[in-house]
């Protein structure tokens, strides 16, 4: 059955941020000691005889722990332009289109990948100036735009970090769920600026990404408390705000994120605690789920530590959808938005 | 900036006032309206979007962190909006020196009437030609006044008439209003409707007197003076003048054309007797007004049904100012042969096409102005048959803007051809193609095993269901219906014929059936700027029950039906159906408890046609621009609703609104319940 296929996106996240073994500390250590290829170094694909594959390119980029999936996709698509042997604009556009389609098909569960591909196509190809120039200058212009887009996406995290600092006040307690690079950077920056705050990390079963985050925060001397996923409601009255990342921000203004975000947001809402989402704008997707089952299932293995009888079914979806009414604000590189503005931005981007 | 926004401001004013029905009390508004920048400025400062205010407790030790880039544009926005509002709105520069400051009421009221002067208004407001007698009288020697009368009567395009009106009415208007002022302040304490009406009569008489005096003094407008003597109904003429007078301020703003189009769509308030009288006189359809009207809905037209048709049919072959094709469509509206927003709109547009084909420009007239007047007269005829739906209103607005934008160098036949093709394109693009796109989007939300509930009969929903069935999705449909129209039966028949498995029930059972439903698909007559869905009565009930059962509610509506108005309840704007149809039960002769209800003094039957569903109960709106949350309706209205957006406010608030919306929200009704909401909206957008 095709549905049983596990999600590449979540597998990659588990590999990068998950802590599956008990020696998680060591593993995290090794991950930081061995940084994968640094951004300026593109994977070797220059040998002309080997056919260029956008997926390989993308896979090479996404191994980089600091690089978001979407940025990797953008870099891979830029490489498509660079290596293209097309002689007309139309050919190039078709090539680009097929490359982005194959990327999207390669992992349908990754919303940010899909969104980034769409956005890239919009951003790069929608320029009227292209039609009046000769092919080579047009191509170099496309490349320029692609680079710029990659850069913008890369910078997005810094912008979000700056924007969100106003919301972290001294003495506050922040609950975080899962491992989000943006949230980590926000907290890191706040800590470096001598803000005094406390962080509760959920465990983030099954890949236990929360452990990884708590490890990172402990290094920064931020007081951290690990909370098992089921203790969220128990600890919520001590919490001042909830910070989560997002795998995707959908048209309704809701987010798709790691399993458990929905229930945390619900608990927070019922206790009147603000829920802040940090997400780059390339995660905005033109997609409107009505309920949880409306998402394409993204599966991932769940390890219970003991053998599960075959008659027992296991829910192994990796993500859930949090409707907009449970979210307070979204911190994006477009600014601090209320959930309802997401759709406005999307309409302006895509129509 | 724009004086027409003074109206809304008046509403926002915190001075408490009693509930007021109808348009006819500008004095009230003037009470609260008087210029208080002191009042307004705090609001503006508060308006720094609630969204952006960071938690209060943060320490500002870090300079680097204190210029959030996103915040700055917002602040600039709100600041800019605020200041221009202050200066431009309350004291329009050219105006204040010209008029005595105490005549504020005239300016305020002018606002409201100015709104009515817009192009659309002309069409949808039978009041447009105040009295034809005046037109005859206008053959008087004076040059100035006749001009103003003429424009009011023909309502071609007020933008042209305004300057003249200004001249014409300057003589009397302000003076009259000064006189009124003390009266109005006395009126402030609670008065009954009758009392207010009496008071107004008195005011009118006063105006008449003042008018006469003023005219004598100025000497230029002798004809006005003459007319009351000549004609039998002085009161009306005076009112006419009074209406025209405030309109002068509209004329002060140069880019009139655009503003006019933004003007709110006025609605006839049918509890205003004098207006109704006037409208009646020029009506083609002779309607007898129903008795025993429900108190809360007196401002809506209600007629004895069934009385007009034979009369109209008899006159079908007579010479009438209405083109036969339009006449026919009107009759079909009247009998209910054509119903449904899309069907009515298409029928109307096709009738207009016929009319344009047969149209010839009369001598010494220009096509643009004469055709606009023609269309307006057709539209007012159609309104007499049945009040316009919002879709029709939008289509008419489109057509009129097309007529107005015709290049002058076009020959008559070219102009007609271009209009015909424009209408054709509107039908095919905005309605037919839009429906196809909606179907394409909505089908993605139907999964195997779904139970879909729909209410009444919506063409878009029908197409969606049929298409999903063609795609082989396995689902079941619950058709919910309601008396008296039972239009769901038609839908049910068509669905069953195509082999869909259906259930049929009445709205009474909706709470029972809802627990097995997985999706609710609803059609809409319109979606308003605040996400309110304006649709067949009962829709709100379905949506609320679905919400309570946590079933997603999907509203399917073409974007051409979106409207920038804001409506918070179903009372202000609605349509009343024939009360007789709810008094008897089809096929049950033995049920006749309500026979002769019209003669029972203390019984009122209410048959509402539409209701308003708050956006909270709507999960998603499927439109030709994709699937959007209800909060994004204003974005679509703003970006695509009109050919050129007038001016925009971008903000991070819940709604992105621009001033026509505010005008509208103030115009449609002044009730205390509404005020806080409007206040919120304003805060967000300035």
UniProtKB/TrEMBL annotation, chain A:
GO molecular function: guanyl-nucleotide exchange factor activity; translation initiation factor activity
Keyword annotations from UniProtKB, A to Z: Cytoplasm, Initiation factor, Protein biosynthesis
Domain of life: Eukaryota
Major localization listed first in the record, in broad terms: cytoplasm
Keyword Cytoplasm set for record: yes
GO cellular component, one term: cytosol
Pfam family, one: IF-2B
Subcellular location: Cytoplasm, Cytosol
InterPro entries from the UniProt entry: eIF2B_alpha/beta/delta, elF-2B_alpha_N, IF-2B-related, IF_2B-like_C, NagB/RpiA_transferase-like
Subunit structure: Component of the translation initiation factor 2B (eIF2B) complex which is a heterodecamer of two sets of five different subunits: alpha, beta, gamma, delta and epsilon. Subunits alpha, beta and delta comprise a regulatory subcomplex and subunits epsilon and gamma comprise a catalytic subcomplex. Within the complex, the hexameric regulatory complex resides at the center, with the two heterodimeric catalytic subcomplexes bound on opposite sides.
PANTHER family found in the cross-reference section: EIF-2B GDP-GTP EXCHANGE FACTOR SUBUNIT ALPHA, TRANSLATION INITIATION FACTOR EIF-2B SUBUNIT ALPHA
UniProt similarity note: Belongs to the eIF-2B alpha/beta/delta subunits family.
Protein name per Swiss-Prot or TrEMBL: Translation initiation factor eIF2B subunit alpha
Organism from which the protein derives: Sphenostylis stenocarpa
Automatic annotation (TrEMBL), chain B:
Span list, region Disordered: 1-52, 70-92, 155-285
Amino acid composition bias (Low complexity), ranges on this chain: 200-212, 226-235
Gene3D superfamilies registered for this protein in UniProt: Translation initiation factor eif-2b, domain 2
Biased composition (Basic and acidic residues): 246-277
Polar residues composition-biased segments: 29-49
InterPro entries: IF-2B-related, IF_2B-like_C, NagB/RpiA_transferase-like
Coiled-coil region(s): none
Protein family per UniProt: Belongs to the eIF-2B alpha/beta/delta subunits family.
Protein's name in the database: Translation initiation factor eIF2B subunit delta
Protein species of origin: Sphenostylis stenocarpa
